[in-house]
Specification:
This protein has 4 helices and 3 strands, in the order αββααβα. The protein is an alpha+beta fold. α1 crosses α3.
Length: 122
């Protein structure tokens, strides 16, 4: 039996991660939970064995712990949606983590706008 290259495994993980992200994004719209208002999934990292999918999310409003707790409470429904919509043999367990990249980027832009260079300092 031919051994798969690591490049192919990496690409499969990316494809499965993107598929899971899209399914979760659609499913989250149907949840009636105020804690998940304006939530978006920014990425999904899937391990090579497809056992665990780490789901990164971002939201401009709300407490990170509350949002993570809400996602954990809805994990069963979200995993069931992935199971029924994705054509993969094993549905990975879902872990949730905040993605602070968007917030940090907005904060950096704010700091740069407020920055007033002193031309006399040179």
């Amino acid at each position: 039996m031919a051994r798969r290259s690591s490049k192919r495994d990496y690409e499969r993980g990316d494809r499965v991660g993107e598929l899971i992200r899209r399914i979760l994004a659609e499913e989250i719209e149907g949840l009636d939970d105020d804690r998940l208002h304006l939530l978006s999934f920014t990425g999904v990292e899937v391990d090579n064995e497809l056992n665990v999918a780490k789901v990164y999310w971002s939201c401009f409003e709300g407490n990170d712990e509350e949002i993570t707790q809400a996602l954990i409470e809805h994990r069963g429904r979200l995993r069931k949606a992935v199971s029924s919509q994705a054509r993969i043999r094993h549905t990975p367990s879902l872990e949730f983590a905040p993605d602070h990249g968007i917030r940090e980027g907005a904060r950096i832009e704010e700091l740069l706008r407020d920055y007033e260079p002193n031309p006399e300092a040179n």
